[in-house]
Structures are given as structure tokens and as C-alpha cells.
Amino acid sequence: xxPRQYVLVGLLGLLLGCATVPGDVxxxxxxxxxxxxxxxxxxxxxxxxxxxxGESAWVxxxxxxxxxETITLYxxxxxxxxxxxxxxxxxxxxxxxxxxxxxxxxxxxxxxxHFMNGGDRVPICAVARLGFGQLRxxxxxxxxxxxxxxxxxxxxxxDEFR
Length: 162
Hints:
By secondary structure, the chain is of the alpha+beta class. The chain has helices at residues 3-16, 40-48; strands at residues 36-37, 56-60, 71-74, 76-82, 93-100, 107-115, 121-129, 145-148, 152-157, 160-161. A six-stranded antiparallel beta barrel has the order 2-4-5-6-7-9. It has a two-stranded antiparallel sheet with strand order 1-10. The longest helix is centred in the first third of the chain and has 14 residues, at 3-16.
């Protein structure tokens, strides 16, 4: 991370306080999350970090399973690793969010970014998206889990979770 980025992240952390991962997202009957607005604080931080809607990069979906051929995701919190730079965020960097496995494919929403070499967590809005089959659940996935054939997926910056 450049000195300028350290200063920017430090200031954002002081101004905005700690970011949090929402736990009260309303769910549909199949267990997938309903639409959710991106918090104003996150939109402001993303403007400062030059994270624009639609920008994307590769992520390792689960920091604990990055070298596995197949991975198992569970309902609840997730820690992913950014593999490519996006905006002023330089890889590697941690992304924190939540997984819902109830539907035909898991839904992954990211609410925070955390630089690997220190600094505060900052609020963002991003999702892991289906592309080339990365998020397709295997048939043997049990309730509350999603077994995937790929440990990587595309992460996309959003301004609202749909």
C-alpha cells in the first residue's frame, strides 16, 4: 500500500468509525437475502477509494480454502482474499461479508475491506457473482452449505444489493 493510501484509510477509519457486517438482512422463503441498500458511509468510502459500480476483480472465496479444488461454504460470515487490484485497493487484501446458501447458488455480499499490512476495516459494497460456473452448487450440497468446484470467483463493486 502506498503512503497516500495509508493516510486515506486512516482518515476514513477515524471519520467513519468501525464498519460492521449487517446481521439483520431480511430473507426470502428460499433463504436467499432480499434487496438491501448500500450504507451512505460505504458509498462515500468507495468514492474516495475510486471503487466504481461494475468494477471487478478476482477473489479467493474463502481465505481458509484457497488452494482446494472444491470448497464448501457455510451460511454466515466469510473472509475472502482479493487477488487483483481494483480502484485504489491493492491485492492482496481481505474482504469480509456474509454467505447465504439457501437458493440454487450461494449469495455472497461483502461489507468491509481490510488491508493485509494493517489499517482499519473500511465499509464497501461488493458481491461475488456467478461467472463461468464458479458459484454453481454441487448436487451433494446439504442444507446450510454450498459445495463449489472453484475456490475463486469474480467480485463486483455495487451501490445496492439486489
